Amino acid sequence: MRYYDKLIFELSHPGRTGYSLPASRQYPFFAEKCSSGAAADSAGFATVLPNNLLRGTALDLPEVSEVDVARHYTNLSQMNFGVDTGFYPLGSCTMKYNPKINEEIANHPLFTGLHPLQPAETVKGAQEVIDGLDKALAAITGMKHFTFLPCAGAHGELTGLMLMREYHMARGDAARTKVIVPDSAHGTNPASAAVCGLEIVEVKSGADGLVDVESLKPLLGPDIAGIMMTNPNTLGLFERQIGEIAKLVHECGGLLYYDGANMNPLLGKVRPGDMGFDIMHLNLHKTFSTPHGGGGPGSGPVGVGERVLPYLDVPRTSGFHGNFGVMLRAYAYILMLGKQNVKMAGPLAVLGANYIKESLKDCYKLPIPTVCKHEFVFDGLIDDGAREGKAGATTLDVAKRLLDYGFHAPTIYFPLLFHQAIMIEPTETESLETLDEFIAVMRKIAAEAAEDPDILHGAPHNTPIGRPDETAAARNPILKA
């Protein structure tokens, strides 16, 4: 058994300890028990806690040395892939590097020492950060103001849709109960609309991957509350007819909601407010480099234009100022780049995506051969090795094989427009050397698939855990040891 395969309890040996506390003159028994590595019993706490709060038996803790603890948890941390350990080309999620200056600012004791129940007059510095971030995001997006209440992107979507409903209800327009969602949209869009009590109407994309305006026109009417879009869309393509779409939706009385998940390539170049969007959310954990994944921390502030501004919630933060640490990180990132360098992020992301796409289109099927923005989609391998009854390599096989070469897999089987979708987004923070290495590995995997797809069928081969039965895991989850 490898070192990191063991539980911390399996490394335990009686009498072994990883720390030593000096004897306490006031509580000598407690200090003695702690320094021995054994748990203090109730007598050790007798002078500290009332009897009704004391344990009846000793706490069962592992007895390990400091080096055992350090190696155990360091090895565990290395089993988890993150943006600090390697390239993370996860399409539609903008997994960019998190600058450490952001962490330093967010962990400054003058911020971390604040209490959420302090009087407002004692936290003016924190309020200045919130106001500054509000102004910066408004300038970048073309919105009027933002609320920082939402704690994630989907939470932002729900908040934005509730604002949309409030706008119509305040105008006595209660019949507007439908929201138009493109077939290429993020899955959270129809889900958020449904949670908000709205009916989803799907609009189809054309062969070019963009919203089909002629298909949109018959859907518009007095029952439409608005349309949810992201631009560029989930295929990484800029919706060139967004001006006409905005005009049509506004003429029918609806509003435009912008899903900010794909805002990264537009930084400093194009603003959703200028495209005609009335409401939008931003993922601070995507576009503005704050930590992403693992269930949080997130932040999905919602911005509004002139039409919806009167309905924006006041105060514009939650009771405890939203996820303030995340907001600090995002604001530090914006200030560090400055106006001029913020404008570089989008073009560099677009350049990287097109570089990878053009370098691999002879190995992987490119369903829409055009210039992309921050991300693009392949539709599986050109030669998957399927011959004479032999099963060919799938998109899942490619993703698993990438793990053997030290890369995280891109998004797969999304969007649903393509059967073997492979969605790749490099972000602007990756170097040319990293992109070249990724391209070389993707080409090597394509060659392996053509020559012997069984290599891919069994991947990954070099990770601590091999390929699990994902269907069985989903249907029969083991939720405890």
Secondary structure: helix percent: 25-40%
Question: What gross morphology would you assign?
Answer: globular
Radius of gyration: 27 Å
How many distinct folded domains? 3
Find the count of extended strands (DSSP E, 2+ residues).
Answer: 10
CATH superfamily of the largest domain: Type I PLP-dependent aspartate aminotransferase-like (Major domain)
Question: What features would you highlight for this structure?
Answer:
Aspartate Aminotransferase, domain 1, globular, 3 domains, 481 residues, Aspartate Aminotransferase, domain 2, 3-stranded antiparallel beta sheet, alpha/beta
What is the topology?
Blueprint: H1 28-36, H2 66-78, H3 100-106, H4 109-112, H5 124-141, E1 145-147, H6 153-170, E2 178-182, H7 188-195, E3 199-203, H8 213-216, E4 224-229, H9 242-251, E5 255-259, H10 272-275, E6 279-281, E7 302-304, H11 324-360, E8 376-379, H12 395-404, E9 411-412, E10 421-424, H13 432-451, H14 454-457, H15 470-475
Parallel strand pairs: 2-3, 2-4, 4-5, 5-6
Antiparallel strand pairs: 1-7, 6-7, 8-10, 9-10
Helix pairs in contact: 3-11, 5-11, 6-7, 11-13
In short:
With 481 residues, the chain is an alpha/beta fold. The protein has helices at 28-36, 66-78, 100-106, 109-112, 124-141, 153-170, 188-195, 213-216, 242-251, 272-275, 324-360, 395-404, 432-451, 454-457, 470-475, and strands spanning 145-147, 178-182, 199-203, 224-229, 255-259, 279-281, 302-304, 376-379, 411-412, 421-424.
